[in-house]
């Protein structure tokens, strides 16, 4: 059976203490304080800390109270939206035998889930004899520090202090400015002039109705049935705005408005001047601190003989368990495995079974409560992928696709005449030679000794011969025209019909293409 200490009443002062089997002096390398606490109903305002009582307190534990001296106070404390995990050392000065409280500096933020999540939390304090300390919650470091530099007030007393016996001299003047006693009030300064005067230039508006009141009794109002004139007095209808004054400048007696009085100057006072006797703010002189000393971390800590829980809380259902005071971190870690972590796993199992387990989103929020800087990490993890996707999808502009207007039919288009230069300059000579050879072939005589081309009739022939020649030419022209028409009809090639050009046509078309290419160049 698991046993624990519980405080079941709210808005009460609680106190309980127990004596240690052996006093704990600070002759060891370290000491460890560990316990777990659970706020079943949350926490509005109150604590959950331990007090390690100083030597001598064990003699009267029945009267344990807030004034009982302690050596270390450690544990959570919350009020409103502010939470702390206290670590307070009560230190003794060996020179004057006085005790002073020194508080460890708190982190910038302490997660409120320690109080509000209704779960058990493990609080651990480890203090080394070198002065270094660490405060952990649920096995994770919350804050750490050094006793000689990170406590407030500082554990090291000041080297100089103000002389308590020093007295301010009677002639010491701390006034930086004084009244000018030589100043005289001007003769034209009239203190009786009012701050405001009636505006004599103001005139009553033409639509001002002095015969009507600005407010009238509500004619529709009725006296309540439960109105008792003996108790409530005479009943009167409430006042409302006079509808007859609606749209007018005003109703009732007209009065001229007031304006600032140009002659007003107020009450005359003497001006201030610099005090020639001013010596500054007086303070006692500094002297060497007779109680100055450079402490060792454990020297001023009195032995611990008892442990107590003394707190005022506004909430109920606070459970303390597994309180450990030791000199071994290994023992504390092993006990935590056997107690707290088993209890923590059981709480998570019960929460999951009841459907109250925290999801991934809640775990993320809890993590940011402990470490607020994680919000920046989460933000970057969300924004950077979005930016990368946006750049990848929308950042690159696609290059313009060239428009190709390929000819898909045999119909004539204007670009048919635009022939690219397919012949280099060094090929032009070869083309000219081919053309020249073909012309020579045409001028050579055929097998009968005549040239291939018909002879041109000489210009010196007689007119009768020319007339007969013209008749023959006209008849031959008509016959040749008919032959050309038949030849054109024979040259018509139907669509998709293969054509096999003759050797002579192929040569001529090749020459023609080369000439066209040269001409296009």
Automatic annotation (TrEMBL):
Keyword Chaperone among record annotations: yes
Compositionally biased residues, Basic residues: 510-521
Molecular functions (GO terms): calcium ion binding; unfolded protein binding
Matches recorded under InterPro entries: Calret/calnex (IPR001580), Calret/calnex_CS (IPR018124), Calreticulin/calnexin_P_dom_sf (IPR009033), ConA-like_dom_sf (IPR013320)
Biased composition (Low complexity): 467-481
Superkingdom of the source species: Eukaryota
UniProt feature, compositional bias: Acidic residues: 423-441
Subcellular location: Endoplasmic reticulum membrane
Gene Ontology CC terms, in alphabetical order: endoplasmic reticulum membrane; perinuclear region of cytoplasm
Basic and acidic residues biased stretches: 407-419, 488-497
Membrane topology, record value: Single-pass type I membrane protein
One Pfam family hit: Calreticulin
TM region(s), chain numbering: 373-394
GO BP, one annotated term: IRE1-mediated unfolded protein response
Keyword Chaperone set for record: yes
Keyword tags: Chaperone, Disulfide bond, Endoplasmic reticulum, Membrane, Transmembrane, Transmembrane helix
Predominant place of localization: endoplasmic reticulum
Annotated segments matching region Disordered: 164-232, 403-521
Disulfides per UniProt: 45-79
Similarity comment: family membership: Belongs to the calreticulin family.
PANTHER family found in the cross-reference section: CALNEXIN 14D-RELATED, CALRETICULIN AND CALNEXIN
Official protein name in the record: Calnexin
Lineage of origin: Eukaryota, Metazoa, Ecdysozoa, Nematoda, Chromadorea
